[in-house]
Amino acid sequence: MAEPILLKLPPRDPREELIHKLENAPQEHAEALLAAYDVLQGLHDAGLLEIAKGLLGSGDKGLEQGFRDAARAHPGAVACVFGYDEGLSHLMQAGIDFIVVPSRFEPCGLTQLCGLRYGATPIVARVGGLADTVIDANDAALSAGVATGVQFAPPATPSLAYALNRAFALYADDAAMRRTRLNGMRADVSWRGPAKRYAALYRALARSE
Predict the structure, then answer these.
(1) Rg of the chain in Å (alpha carbons)
(2) Please, what is the angle between helix 111-118 and helix 86-94, to 10°?
(3) How far is CA 18 from CA 41, 96, 115, 174, 209, in A?
(4) Which one of 6, 13, 28, 64 has the fewest beta carbons within 10 angstroms of its own beta carbon?
């Protein structure tokens, strides 16, 4: 396993993580989070935000260099590990508050499902399987007590920056954050429901022949 990622923040400040396949940049859209660092840094410089960001992934050398530069510029607040490390991935998800999945498109997506189970509230682009598995923490969902994460659209840096701000506002509300996190940890993302619907569909097709 790689050396631990060290992010130095007081206990009440949110920790955010990106576990990403940087080699699949057109889909995964990791550069959106890299660009959003400028927005986050502006909030930090204004004294409005303290946040730590961790990255685990590898691939596109330009993206790797961009994240490496961000880590060098903000030691203790940004940390990166380049490569594949399943154990570290689980440790990171178990120790963070938010996990960011800014994909341009996503047929299913496992990262946000793992995040839900670990209590790492997903911040996801409103596309494909991400939109299907994460309930946005809008006012209605929060009032109904069903929110499990934060969605944003379109998958672009300005909307991601806005989603991050929404997530930090959610984090500042202890009761809402706890309910959202527990909702995600309790969410049934198994094949039990879909398998029953597929079986019913196949039975209906068989009867129609």
Answers:
(1) 18
(2) 50
(3) 17, 10, 11, 23, 48
(4) 6
Cα–Cα dist 121/114, whole Å: 10
Measured in residues, the chain has a length of 209
Tokens of 189: 């993302």
H-run or E-run covering 193: helix 192-208
The rounded mean pLDDT for the chain is 79
**Helix axis angle, 157-172 relative to 174-186, nearest 10°?**
110
- Residue spans per domain, the chain: 15-208
Q: Which two structure tokens, joined as six digits, stand for 68?
A: 């490496």
**21: helix, strand or coil:** strand
* d(C-alpha 143, C-alpha 135), whole Å: 13
Tokens 């410089």 appear where?
Answer: 45
140/135 Cα distance (integer angstroms): 11
Residue with tokens 């840096």: 157
- Checking if the pLDDT of 140 tops 90, the result is yes
CA atoms of 46 and 120, how far apart (whole Å): 27
What CATH code is assigned to 15-208? 3.40.50.2000
The better pLDDT of the pair 5, 113 is held by: 113
Question: Of 165 and 179, which is predicted with more confidence?
Answer: 179
Q: Return the structure tokens found at 46.
A: 């204004």
Among 56, 63, 139, smallest CA distance to 99 is for 56
